[in-house]
Write a structure and sequence with these properties.
By secondary structure, the protein is α/β, with parallel strands linked by helices. 41% of the residues lie in helices and 23% in strands. It contains twelve helices and ten strands. The chain has helices at residues 3-6, 13-20, 67-75, 97-104, 122-133, 138-151, 168-179, 198-215, 226-231, 250-255, 259-266, 268-277, and strands at residues 27-38, 41-52, 56-61, 82-87, 90-91, 107-110, 186-190, 218-222, 235-240, 243-248. The strands form two sheets. It has a six-stranded mixed β-sheet with strand order 6-7-8-3-9-10. The protein has a four-stranded antiparallel β-sheet with strand order 2-1-4-5, with helices on one face. Helix 8 links the parallel strand 7 and strand 8. Helix 6 (138-151) crosses helix 7 (168-179).
Length: 278
Amino acid sequence: MSDAALQPATQPPREMARRLAGPDAEVVIRVTDLEVGFGPKTIMKHLNLDVRRGEILGFVGASGTGKSVLTRAILGLVPKRAGKIEVFGEDLDRLSRAARKAIEQRWGVLFQQGALFSSLTVKQNVQVPMREYLDLSERLLDELAMLKIEMVGLSPDAADKFPSDLSGGMIKRAALARALALDPDIVFLDEPTSGLDPIGAGEFDELISTLQQTLGLTVFMVTHDLDSLHSVCDRIAALGEGKIIAEGTIETMLASTNPWLKAYFHGKRARAAFSAGN
């Protein structure tokens, strides 16, 4: 038995998670020499990135550099021109349709703005992945959906509300419940705190951290939120000029001499965020 397994009561949960997601942890997503573009414009070229099991990886970059595009390329929603994407050690290009479907059942996605179906209630939205991949009775679908809704901190009466009846924070939580519908190993979060006030964003960060620790999730989080990067991310990867320009802990980012990283992590907003975190 490992030392980490023998010491759960003596270490804070976040530090425990960081040990388990250390440099020797299994790589669950490996992106190699990725090239993605639209028409004559190349968005990413020779991009390489590993995501380790059990970590929360924050993915940052200037607006328009392609942060969300990478998520969509991994998910197969955006075609790539070259390179290889492996998930759980499997080359996604070489999988049969059945094998690809099995991989897809092991990830969940929270898109920007939630992307809930406006004509469906919260409960029905959460049930969409269950209906697509699982053969369950209506009673069990309802029970599982209510469990996910409770898990993300929504009250039971939110289940029968439509997205138009929800606040921004409730939409994010409902979308997260849907992302967790199939008990995934990996969760992709695209700007999860965007549009939330500071208190709501902080509460959502805390929810993500708690769920990651409780469920053993691997979290790939596209974000520009400095508070999120400081408080919940184990590692950070920065995108610039179509490739990863730096990756590591928050301390690594702060020590970088890259001009964009210096401006991003040492600006007034960064100093305020890090002072609050300390």
